[in-house]
Amino acid sequence: MKKILAVDDSASMRQMVGFTLKKAGFDVTEARDGSEALSIAKQQGFDAVISDVNMPIMDGITLIRELRNLPNYKFTPLLMLTTESGLEKKTEGKAAGATGWIVKPFNPEQLLAVLKKVIR
């Protein structure tokens, strides 16, 4: 079973993402912000990380930079799931190492389709 780390400061968004992924057969771990996600990611491996951009303590782009510095996450798909659709943020995300960008509100089929494309 593929393991996904879902990171969002919104409990309802984490539940929605978690529900969608669990229903599709993924093992999902949730984190409330980038800092919590980073500490979880250092303790266990994930097949993909889905993160919001705007969060307290550590934002999603900083999280992606930090994850890319860890040997186990050099090639892990890191997806941004965010309300940010501006080119500047997307460029910043890509530069940090984001694999893909999904704009909220997302539809479950779209999220699963993107995940299936990037997970081996």
Automatic annotation (TrEMBL):
InterPro entries: Bact_response_regulator, CheY-like_superfamily, Sig_transdc_resp-reg_receiver
UniProt GO BP: phosphorelay signal transduction system
Pfam families membership: Response_reg
Phosphoprotein among keywords: yes
Keywords of the record: Phosphoprotein
4-aspartylphosphate PTM positions: 52
Residue ranges occupied by any Response regulatory domain in the UniProt entry: 3-119
The protein, known as: Chemotaxis protein CheY
Biological source species: Pseudoalteromonas holothuriae
Classification lineage: Bacteria, Pseudomonadati, Pseudomonadota, Gammaproteobacteria, Alteromonadales
Gene behind the chain: cheY_2
